[in-house]
């Protein structure tokens, strides 16, 4: 079974408070965050890391300092010393989301904004592009982001990043309208979630998707690290 958690970075009324949490993340991650020139990027990166740590500590009943991350050869992070707990994280605009469970999983969220729809050539397979051309103009953007997040979630579930071109595989619906994809002799399943102004998709070989997304306020998980700051986080 998977669970999906979300945090809105808009909840952070004073982003300087986040500097108090540097001591809870790795030195490597700190250096990456400090390279961000835009404060919102830094905020998304910090909240993403802290949310993952909070969830892992709660699921495994361990301390933050006991968490060890490593990456596969394609750069996908995973827990080094604990087998049986998988997670994946994504963020866009004001939302940070994390899927966590007992199986490999990929999640993607995108804020819906106007784009050059000619990029569809790089996202859709031939079959999907034909379907896209038959979609009415006022629904093309929604269709684009739906396919984009679904495919991105599969790529993240595979953990191979840019090594899988989006237009190299096709999404299919069965007779029950369930989305799936056959990729390298493996069957992947999907679920989409409705969030105003966003598209969110999750992918796994297991169909154990949650019904709803659980939203956290900043105080709910940051006070886990710094209880004394709880009032400032409200």
UniProtKB/TrEMBL annotation:
One of its GO terms (biological process) is lysine biosynthetic process via aminoadipic acid. Residues 104-203 form the 4'-phosphopantetheinyl transferase domain. GO terms for cellular component: cytosol. It is an enzyme of class 2 (transferase). InterPro entries: 4-PPantetheinyl_Trfase_dom, 4-PPantetheinyl_Trfase_dom_sf, AASDHPPT_N, P-Pant_transferase_sf, Ppantetheine-prot_Trfase_dom. One of its GO terms (molecular function) is holo-[acyl-carrier-protein] synthase activity. Its cofactor is Mg(2+). Keywords: Magnesium, Metal-binding, Transferase. Its EC number is 2.7.8.-. The keyword Metal-binding applies. SUPFAM superfamilies: 4'-phosphopantetheinyl transferase (SSF56214). Residues 20-99 form the 4'-phosphopantetheinyl transferase N-terminal domain. Belongs to the P-Pant transferase superfamily. Gsp/Sfp/HetI/AcpT family. This is 4'-phosphopantetheinyl transferase Sfp. It comes from Clostridium pasteurianum DSM 525 = ATCC 6013. The gene is sfp.
């Amino acid at each position: 079974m998977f669970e999906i958690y979300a945090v809105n970075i808009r909840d952070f009324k004073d982003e300087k408070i986040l500097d108090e949490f540097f001591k809870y993340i790795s030195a490597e991650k700190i250096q990456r965050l400090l390279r961000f020139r835009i404060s919102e990027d830094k905020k998304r990166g910090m909240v993403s890391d802290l949310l993952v740590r909070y969830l892992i500590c709660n699921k495994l009943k361990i301390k933050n300092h006991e968490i060890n991350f490593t990456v596969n050869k394609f750069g996908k992070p995973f827990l080094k010393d604990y087998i049986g707990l998988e997670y994946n994280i994504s963020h866009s605009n004001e939302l940070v989301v994390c899927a966590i469970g007992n199986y490999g999983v990929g999640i993607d969220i995108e804020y819906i904004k106007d784009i050059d729809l000619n990029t569809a050539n790089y996202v859709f397979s031939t079959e999907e592009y034909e379907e896209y051309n038959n979609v009415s103009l006022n629904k093309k953007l929604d269709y684009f982001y739906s396919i984009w997040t679904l495919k991105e979630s599969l790529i993240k579930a595979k953990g191979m990043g840019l090594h899988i071109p989006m237009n190299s595989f096709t999404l299919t619906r069965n007779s029950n309208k369930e989305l799936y994809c056959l990729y390298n002799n493996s069957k992947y399943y999907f679920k989409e979630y409705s969030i105003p102004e966003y598209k969110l998709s999750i992918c796994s070989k297991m169909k154990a998707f949650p019904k709803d997304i659980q939203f956290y306020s900043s105080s709910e998980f940051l006070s886990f690290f710094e209880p004394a700051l709880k009032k400032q986080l409200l």
